[in-house]
Amino acid sequence: MDNEGRAVLCWVQAQDTADNFLMAYAVSPDGGKTFNKTRFIPTTAGVYPHDENLSKILFRKNGDIIAMFAVSNPNPENDYAGLVKYTQSFDGGKTWTAAKQIAEDITGSIDERYFDMTLLPNGEVAAIWLDSRKEMPAEGSSLYYASTQGRAGFKNEKIIDRQLCQCCRTKLFVDEAGNLHAVYRAILNGTVRDMMHLVSGDNGKSFSKPERISADNWAIDGCPHTGPAMTATGTGLHFVWYTMGGGSGVYYCRKPNNQGFSQRETVSNLPSARHPQLCTIKNGELVIVWDEQAQQAGNLNNRIGLQIRDNNGQITQNTHLSPDSISATHPVIIKVAESAVLVAYTNKSAKDSQVWYKHINL
């Protein structure tokens, strides 16, 4: 959403047939039903399209804009390394600053990815990302945190956890009380890759000890490429994620106020179900989206699932948003009205990939 409460859709778009891309965005004048003219961000040259490592755009309360994106950074240590960069606009998107690497230690940080950012209660912007810098040779990435200082960009980077799964999306979320939450997939005991949660009550100055969301005990020597998501209601915190520990698919749990995490519940038990996202609408209802393989013989397409739960986590509706005739993946969702959401996803074909969106009244 922009600083005027309008829905904003951003994506990465090819500029030619030589794999040159730019970030693009469009603003909706009517709550996500239609979008105005596409605007390109010229200082994002080098950005590459990545379903899990999505580019992001954020509008500050004063109208300043930050666009964050990933670029490749092959080096002698890792041919597939990348960097997280950002660019700012102080005039409503007319002009943009030169892109900067998010890490201040630009010589020491040679691999950054799977980032997120959010607006803090104090008006600054917080960001997290996975970073190759670490204090021990153990497998995994470090989780770094930084926040903006006015228009000077991101400063005072620090490690807030260690040994994270290297290729799963991270998530930042600020609740109505102003607490800053981070969720991510960690590597526990060398082989287990489960979801973790930590929280800050002082705009990121300090963070709680990480807690495991669910003891899935998924032992895997590899990366699932699917991270967690969370939201909050008056009854507590709510989480969704993918695992193959003790069962396969997308799961949900909640953390009622001043209590521990509940036992996980199934959102979709299809082994192909991945990439969940969720948001909160009227009366604290939860809207969850994810992708999974269409359940038709010989059909390898993916479809977008949607589930609604009440503010206590009880299921009230299950449906699918996309037809089985297309291959739809990696949905994202935001609330655009008290009883309406906007869902965007990638429609993949042999020819190209397109961003589709759907405005849904609930």
TrEMBL record:
It holds the Pfam family BNR_2. SUPFAM superfamilies: Sialidases. Residues 57-217 form the Sialidase domain. This is Sialidase domain-containing protein.
